[in-house]
Amino acid sequence: MSTPVIKVIRPGDTSKPDPFTICIVANPALEAPRGAGQFITDPVVSDQPAFDAAVTYIHNCLFGLLPGQGEALLAVPDIAPKVRIVSLFVPGLPPQDANSLVANDSISNQLIARRAMAIPFLSRFGLTADVVYCVSKSSTHSRATAWFTSDDDAAGGLPFTLDGITFHHRFHHLIPGTIAIHTGASSLTALHEFQHALSSYSNGKIVDLYVQSPPAVNCKHGRPIPPSFANYNGTNLGSDPTRDSLGYPAGWVSFYCALHNQNVPAVMDNYPLATAPESCENDVITRRFILERLRAKISR
Amino acid sequence: MEPLKPEDKTFILENNPQASPEEIEEYEQLLSVRFTEDPDLAPEPALESARSRESRLTELYQKLIAPLGGPAVGSGQ
After folding, report:
1. Which residues of A touch B (CB under 8 A)?
2. CB A169 within 8 A of CB A181
3. Domains of chain A: which residue ranges?
């Protein structure tokens, strides 16, 4: 193994022993295909410039720095200085189970994070993270995916209510949110996947809106569409009656929250269909939920 | 999950006469749903549902994607 290259992209809250952290890792080995127990070296470890470019892209996408970007999620004054971002590039690791953070799916072009490997892999390099981007340069698979966070529900958190039910923005996780992403990713992909990954299996999921997803924080089912989407922490948030410029397909029962920019799809919706995809912004509940979850973790 | 690029959907429809927009939508929906349950905590009914979903995904992959040469169809990267 060559010397690991660890770069601190943003220092975050240096006054805390466990600041909110995003780790961007070059995937050492691909499981190909997923579930086969067979591993090959990920081409990304032979291309540090491509990895470094992906790190820059991910950072810029999260902070609204892409040309024409409308959603500057993390560029909020009370959040931006508290976000720690670290990149990890380790060439020369053998292609084996313990070094594989991403799998090539066997029935799609999805790159899929091997989420259970994230904590043990990072710990070998003295790192921890709340969200892990696993960057691949697979020659056959290119589609980014994310697993939500598995919260530590036995630990602390800040309570919130959603339609009268109490949940918690948890301080800690059992398994961090994990993202598999290709070096060629562009547009809002890094932000879209981050919002999945930061959401929670037990305290609120942020789901895809370009298909009929199960009910979640940002998705409800029912017809006719009611004027009120949800009551979040005592505030009524309106619905999006028209799904911006896309429209709800006939037969769909899902409906969504009102948008910040009503002229373009939501970040979790079909943003590639927008004339200028980078101009897409979140719906009201997604932005509020993600930012409050971030503030809870930052406060730990 | 990253949305399907419009040009990739067009590529599938134009190059696979077996493909329909409805089945592409079903394939996309099933791919997305994969990630909405904690894979390490899923109860038995969810596991059964996942097995059924993966079986249908395999069918759709064989019909929609495999004839075009595998996972890297369309524009890819």
Report:
1. 104-105, 107-110, 115-116, 139-148, 150, 175, 182-185, 189, 192-193, 196, 201-202, 205, 207-208, 210-214, 216, 269-273
2. no
3. 5-207+281-298
Q: What is the distance between the alpha carbons of residues B74 and B29, in angstroms, rounded to a whole number?
A: 19
Both tokens of residue A8?
A: 């601190």
Q: Which residues of chain B does A148 touch, with a Cβ-Cβ cutoff of 8 Å?
A: 35-36, 38
* Angstroms from A168 CA to nearest CA on chain B: 17
* One pLDDT digit (tens) per residue for chain B, 77 residues: 999 999 999 999 999 999 999 999 999 999 999 999 998 887 777 788 889 999 999 999 999 999 998 776 544 43
B71/A140 CB distance under 8 A = yes
- Structure tokens that stand for A298 in this block: 């930052």
Here the ipTM equals: 0.95
Q: Measured at the alpha carbon of residue A248, what is the angle toward residues A245 and A250, in degrees to the nearest 5?
A: 135
| Closest Cβ–Cβ partner in B3, B29, B31 for A108 | B31
Fold of A5-207+281-298: Collagenase (Catalytic Domain) (3.40.390)
Residue to test with chain B: of A107, A110, A111, A187, most B Cβ within 10 A:
A107
